[in-house]
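Predict both folds.
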Amino acid sequence: MRTPFSLLAAAAVFVVPAAAQVQQPRYLNPRDVQEAAQQHSEVLAEFGGAETGPRAAYVEGVGRRIAAYSGTANAGQVYHFTTLNSAVENAFAVPGGYVYITRQLMGIMNDESELAFVVGHETGHVAANHAQARRSAANNTAILGVLGQILGAVVGNNAFGGLISQSAQQFSKLRLLSFTRDQEYQADVLGIRYMTAAGYDPNGSAGMLAQLTSTSALEARIQGDKNRSTPEWASTHPLSENRMAQAAQIARQTGRAGNGIRNRDLFLAQLDGVMVDDDPAQGVIDGRSFTHPDLRLQFYVPTGYLMQNGTRAVTIQGSGGQAQFSGGRFSGGMDAYVAQVLQQLTGGRVQLAMGPMQRTTINGIPASYVVGRANTSSGGVDVGVFAYQWDPNTIYHFVTLTKAGQGLAPFAQMFDSLRRISTAEALAIRPRIIDVVTVGRGDTIQSLAGRMAYKDFQLDRFLTLNGLAASSRLTPGQKVKLVVYGNRQS
């Protein structure tokens, strides 16, 4: 039986300096490398696409500098670092050496050493082959693609095992593993080792974990008003004060804490102008509403329900059930469309006892809906499809999963809320971007926080974004981040 990684072992990692360690380079599994390369385009499609330009090149450069100290053979060729256009605060890696970081996660960082720790942490997962250790668990617990997310569970995970379709399963390998706590500690240790060897201040590790913790805590406070689901990082990278304390301890043991590369100004210059929160091109969540300015539509979720915006769909979850909104071009008629949705949902492997197709009109839009019953090992489940004939060649729809007997009722208000928005309403939706400003004489935390492009929690957002406390003092010439409204790109 393999001895689990422990905090004692973690603390011992730095007994031998990284430069003095003699070990054979580890080669990544060729099959993993091939699969990662093949899946790369699918990852990009699911997470909003890849950023390009100077910022993407900057992240790639930092990543390659870190990976050179990972003990991986041909690290400069096998590791790839991609910045994703995603509003989810996350970073993840796949076994074949592809490391991904979202623009949203970059937005909460305050210098290059924090970026170095994140890419080092994810590189550590690859170099330590953590995915292999978790692979068997992933077969049962991996979060699937957008469709798979809504099949999570209304009455228990096992209830929907037979409803997961092939169209959902094709994305299962792209999703993140929830690593064990010991694996997270080990990845932290490896990340600190790599960044220190690369010349960075190891204190950036504890600083980054502090940013993640405070950001997650703020999101938890805001969620009741904003109807957003938990940030992905919080579910796939367990946060705790122990991790911060451990990182700070290991940083001290390097003998280099407080020394090394921080590159704050260079990092903030790269961050200036980056989009945060939702990309209007993918639709925007604001409280209980989802608005897509390009598709000219809007709907509201029931009070207390949470939304997650994705590239392909919007997922909705709450105590009464789960749902997904998506759709697009289709010219085969409503009945054929609904039948296709049901076929994709079940994969043809689960029998649904279907009720009759019903027709109605919602805010002037022709609509059709149907409810079916699926019997699972955990009991009955009602599966609903509510579709809208948006124009002759476009159909949008909700898929819903509720407990047997509830049918579409928990989402009735949501179905009735879908409407077309005006040109003026569409034009009023603008992206939020980071604006790096220099503190001037007379500027205060309160005055700068008042410029944040939010209607609520302005002070808390400003402090958290910049890693400041309410008692912090600003000095003229200091650079800080604001979130302001940008312009829509044509």
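Second protein follows, with its predicted structure tokens after the sequence.
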Amino acid sequence: MKTLEEVQDIQEESAKLYVEQVFEKVKQRNPNEQEFHQAVKEVLESLIPVLTKNPTYMEQAVVERIVEPERMIVFRVPWVDDQGKAHVNRGFRVQFNSAIGPYKGGLRFHPSVNGSIIKFLGFEQIFKNSLTGQPIGGGKGGADFDPKGKSDNEIMRFCQSFMKELSKHIGPHTDVPAGDIGVGAKEIGYMFGEYKKIRGTFEAGVLTGKAIGYGGSLGRTEATGYGTVYFVDEMLKANGLSFADANVVVSGSGNVSIYAMEKAIEFGAKVVACSDSSGYIYDENGIDLQTIKQLKEVDNKRIHEYVAIHPNATFVEDHTKIWSVACDIALPCATQNELDKTAAEQLVANQVKAVGEGANMPSTLEAIDVFHENNVLFAPAKAANAGGVAVSSLEMAQNSARLSWTFEEVDAKLQAIMKDIYHNSVKASEEYGVPGNLVVGSNIAGFVKVADAMIAQGVI
């Protein structure tokens, strides 16, 4: 008769084999989609403890179902530039999982957008949205359109064309897109106007990230950056650390980066470096955030202009070298896979204490291993980056109730959500035998809620 330990070993091996088989099928069905493969691999490997303990998830084929989108929509987006020349871009929307609510996830306009990136983002969104505690499923979308260098009229015409097709697949109770890289309040406004014209009705809850004047939420602009810092702050405090007097490096200088910097500075940190695609700036006296806001949010200029205003600062053309700057806390807030193994090793050599992911999947799997092996506190994106979609869900709630909350009310709710995500992730990591591993903890905490809902609803 086998001992309990032997039975558990057999169950664990069975879970590992199951995960390997599911992942191999994902690769076969989705060839050459490296970003999607990476996202799936990270989650599946994290789920081995929960599958070992709860084989029902394997018996009900929950994992096979959760890695397969419920729907993937690909469409052409024709538009005309200011010179009258016609262009055609490709649009995407992946409706990945609706077990706990309508699909929810941003739209990204960037030349790099393809099926793999949209699927990786949509897959991550399932668990991120689940972690918020809000009733929202996972989705994502976008187009390989580059808004940089385009006039407002060109962007408007593109957004209107994009919405002509997208409008067939979204709605306040079906799928609620928001913004992402390349899609801000301006783009959301153009799309909302076109949707309203097509439908002939004012459905405020169909898009989030709207301007305040027609159903947007106070605090939404700041939410992702603030949320990242709220999560990291909770992680630091639990380990006897804080932002106070810490040197912080933040990659990027867009919306997430700016408001992560703002909140970190408010918490007493000194942000010494930030970047854009042209390079990074280092200011040993601390980045002047108002200058960054002026350059990026008003003047739409490149980051190197900062040194003309602050000559004591330094500009380095290679933005990937930002992780060579010594810091106590690193906040990658730019884009996926920006922080690789070499960068992680450099951060560790410079005695970094914590890393918090403000962007979607900014660290490679090898980089995450380096942080764990060297006991660096690590806040994974699907947990730390969840503030944006959390406040988007709060915007949906305000739209449904036809009311608006103050900035302070929204911010208080955001802080509570981020604290809950941290503690639920810690609890799951401890329950499944990997205390302190927030990658595993957040994946399991997000998965269990969705998986249980899928089982309760039958094989659908």
